[in-house]
Write a structure and sequence with these properties.
The complex is a heterodimer of chains A (about 190) and B (about 190). Chain A is an all-alpha fold. Chain A has one domain. Chain A contains nine helices and no strands. Chain A is globular and about 60 Å long. In chain B, about 70% of the residues lie in helices and about 0% in strands. Chain B has one domain. Chain B has a two-stranded antiparallel sheet. In chain B, helix 3 runs antiparallel to helix 7. Chain B is mainly α and about 190 residues long. Chain B is built from eight helices and two strands. Classes of the chains: A mainly alpha (about 190), B mainly alpha (about 190). Chains A and B meet through helix 2, helix 4, helix 7 and helix 9 of A and helix 2, helix 4 and helix 8 of B.
Chain lengths: ~190, ~190
């Protein structure tokens, strides 16, 4: 249990997937302009990430390791993620049209979100057991969600600021993200190690 | 020729299109890592666009993205095993960012936007231009970060010993800051030209 709490906190605050591993930067820069779309994207990523880590864990340990075909892992993982996104999209469209309305357009984008493949690869590299892997996937998604929300909040305010022309758009967003990463570095002392 | 030049400046993948951000930010702590990543991307980009443009008429439109991704993943696996076998130190430094080339939007983007509509020759030239553009972008960014953060360049000491270095440039925050200022600088140069 202690172990799971440690994984949870460290994936959200200490080793945040966006700010210290630089994964999922494209959607981070792309959809963080509005709070509402950030909310939709964050929920979709958390959902798919949790599912992707659990299913990839099962496939990696039960099939790839058993038959010693680990060299296929990249191809298998990316196929799992792509088909998972497709299935989730169809499932939500059928059973919850309102949720589909809010998440729908973000789902296809997730296939090329490197945060998902990244967290699956980290999960394999860290030799987690099943329940740890699921916790890791879920908290990684929440970490992405949190940073996306903070960023969207800041950018909505920044839209009214008078910024030099060359810094408008991407440069300003990157520098804001840099300052945010500096703030998150402050959490390093949280666990005392 | 035009296909090649385009990736070097006007449609530069990092500074203009802001694609492939994850490796750009993550592996550019030292110039050597930046170059290795650039080389790996050139290899994967070259062969996957080549294969995609050869079999473009065979791929059903609905599943094309999945097909491209599988092709890319195959070449990334080759590069990954190459580095593991011949350059284990670089492989360790790049870590999971090497397999993450699979989801690098530059490669998928070139397959979808260019290689699926053009001849093999044009696609390959375009891929080389984009790859070289990406590599010089990585090299500049990693050179700046290595110089300011550790006082070295290509692992050689440049600043005199004891010179104060900015440790933050090697950290995650420094990557965002350095890239932010570089993109602003590119915008400025574009302004001067007009």
């Amino acid at each position: 249990m202690e172990n799971l709490i440690l994984i949870f906190i460290s994936a959200i605050l200490l080793n945040n997937i966006v700010l210290s591993y630089f994964l999922g930067i494209c959607p981070f820069l792309g959809v963080s302009g509005k709070l509402e779309s950030a909310l939709g994207m964050g929920m979709a990523v958390t959902f798919v990430m949790t599912l992707a880590t659990s299913i990839s864990w099962l496939i990696y340990h039960e099939i790839l390791l058993r038959f010693q075909i680990e060299f296929l892992q990249y191809v298998v993982f990316i196929l799992v993620i792509a088909s998972l996104v497709q299935i989730v999209e169809m499932f939500i469209r059928k059973f919850s049209p309102p949720l589909y309305q809010s998440l729908g357009i973000y789902l296809p984008l997730i296939t090329s979100n490197c945060a998902i493949l990244g967290i699956v690869l980290f999960m394999v590299a860290k030799h987690y057991r099943f329940h740890e892997a699921v916790t890791y996937g879920f908290s990684g998604g929440l970490g992405f969600f949190l940073v996306l929300l903070i960023m969207a909040g800041i950018r909505e305010e920044l839209a009214y600021a008078d910024v030099p022309q060359v810094f408008r758009g991407a440069p300003l967003t990157l520098i804001t993200a840099g300052l945010l990463a500096l703030i998150f570095m402050g959490f390093q002392g949280l666990l005392g190690t | 020729m035009n296909n090649f030049i385009r990736g070097l400046w006007n449609q530069h993948p990092i500074f203009r299109q802001l694609l492939g951000m994850c490796p750009t930010l993550a592996v550019t702590t030292t110039a050597v890592n930046g170059l290795a990543m650039g080389g790996a991307v050139i290899f994967v980009l070259f062969f996957s666009t080549c294969v995609v443009s050869i079999i473009k008429s065979l791929i059903p439109a609905q599943v094309r993205i999945a097909v491209y991704t599988v092709i890319i993943a195959t070449f990334v696996t080759i590069v990954d095993y190459f580095f593991k076998a011949y350059h284990p130190d670089i492989s360790a430094a790049l870590g999971p960012y090497l397999p993450l080339i699979i989801v690098n939007c530059i490669i998928l983007g070139r397959c979808e936007a260019f290689a699926s509509k053009n001849t093999v020759r044009a696609s390959v030239t375009d891929a080389l231009g984009m790859g070289v553009g990406f590599t010089w972008g990585l090299f500049v960014l990693s050179g700046i970060r290595e110089f300011l953060g550790q006082g070295t360049l290509l692992n050689r000491q440049v600043l005199p010993a004891g010179f104060p270095v900015l440790g933050v440039m090697v950290s995650a925050a420094g990557a965002f800051l350095a890239l932010g200022f570089l993109v602003a600088l590119m915008n400025r140069i574009e302004q001067w030209k007009t």
